[in-house]
Amino acid sequence: MNKLIFTLSILSNFIIIYALSKKTINVIFLFAILAFSGQWLSLLLNTNETFFFSYAEFIVVLYFIAKYHSHNTLGYKLLAFFPLSCLLSLSNVSDGISAVKSIFYITMLLGGTSFFIFFKEKIREITFQHYYDKIVLLWTLLGVFYKVSNTIAYDTPFLLMRSGSSLWASNHQALIILILVPLVKNRIIKSISILFILFHLSRGIYLTLFLYTLLELLIYKNGQIIKGIIKLSLAISISVSIIFFINPNIVEKSFNILSVRLTLGGAGSNYIENEVKRQDIKTNTVIAGVIKDDRFVLAEKSVELLKESNYMGVGAGNFRKNLPSVDFPPVYSNAHNMYLTILSENGVIALFSFAAIMIYFLSLAFLYNRKVFIALCLFSFYGLFSGQIYEEGTEISFIDYYFLILLFAIVESSRRLKRETIST
């Protein structure tokens, strides 16, 4: 497996650099392989600290900063102010490695301003060539690939394996699909993608999908979404029935695993992977599991970290490292909440600046592009369950932020197009 990752990481660097030299919009597809780009050197050095060695990300970001380095809209200024406000948290970083890590993440976030301009210039090409459909299909296929590989590794039924995505974390991969699904035109691709993320066994995903359905009904007020839900439900029922018919023993195992996953949350993932072959998994009620969820404790610890840092944060990417200082083991790389993660790592000003970005583009989307409005609502809501802008770990998950930037660019372009139409 390490040889495969080594080969993929080397190959990804050549592909990224080649795509940049061609100055093609297809670079948007390369976000899926950025997570591999730095792993070849970390494998050679036998370390998990990939953030320092992921130089391909720096090449991508520096290229776009050099080419699209300035703009004069309010949206651009807000996008620039957010990562700059995160710099204040560096005053609480005590060692060089943590400082490098923080600067890396802040640089990646700052690169979003240049991607914003790049996407705006290419938005018509992206739209007319159905890039939203292609992106969603790509991430779904990659997710299926990793789900299958993990299924084999853990000897677990495919539908019950939660882990698996091109970012090595199902929540990030599912989020990218979720926020672009409202823009997908091909109904088959949309159905397949939704069907896939339904098997992530994530409570946050299920709640966000429910919100998506509700927003579609409230905004568009037609029966298409209901018909789609009925067809999707039938497809799921038939698929599951066939699987259960082939292997009746999977019924009990499925119930146990799903119950553990829904009750224990993130802890349930590790429990399932380690104990999946056991037939005596003890189940609890979902309500009891939710009450015991670590998210509530993490919320308290996030606030404690914020206070310890004089409300300026402990540094981007340093949540896990600082958990022992508030009497909690370093087992989580974020607060399982985007807003609390930003608050505890980057401080009050950073959270306010990010909130300003979201409010600004949400208001514009409501006026000029309702599909993007739905997508931004899904992103904002899912942020209550996952720290998805970036996450300190083996994956480089700031890619989620770049897809959020794409939505912002669509909104700005929609406003410009409407103004041009009115003026003519």
Detailed description of the structure:
With 424 residues, this protein is mostly helical. Helices cover 69% and strands 0% of the residues. The chain is built from 19 helices and no strands. Helix 1 (2-22) runs parallel beside helix 3 (55-67) and helix 16 runs antiparallel to helix 17 (348-368). Mean pLDDT is 76; it is low at 266-290.
**Main sheet characteristics:** none
Query: What is the residue-mean pLDDT, rounded to a whole number?
Result: 76
What gap, in angstroms, lies between the N and C termini? 59 Å
Count every helix, treating DSSP H or I runs of 4 or more residues as helices.
19
CA-atom Rg in angstroms: 21 Å
The computed structural class is mainly alpha
Number of β-strand runs:
0
Query: Which stretches are poorly predicted, pLDDT < 50 over at least 5 residues?
Result: 266-290
> In percent terms, what proportion of residues is strand?
under 5%
Topology of this protein?
Blueprint: H1 2-22, H2 39-45, H3 55-67, H4 74-86, H5 96-128, H6 131-154, H7 170-180, H8 187-198, H9 203-220, H10 224-246, H11 250-264, H12 266-275, H13 286-291, H14 294-308, H15 319-322, H16 338-346, H17 348-368, H18 370-382, H19 399-423
Helix pairs in contact: 1-2, 1-3, 3-5, 4-5, 4-17, 5-19, 6-7, 6-8, 7-18, 7-19, 9-18, 11-12, 14-16, 16-17, 17-18, 17-19, 18-19
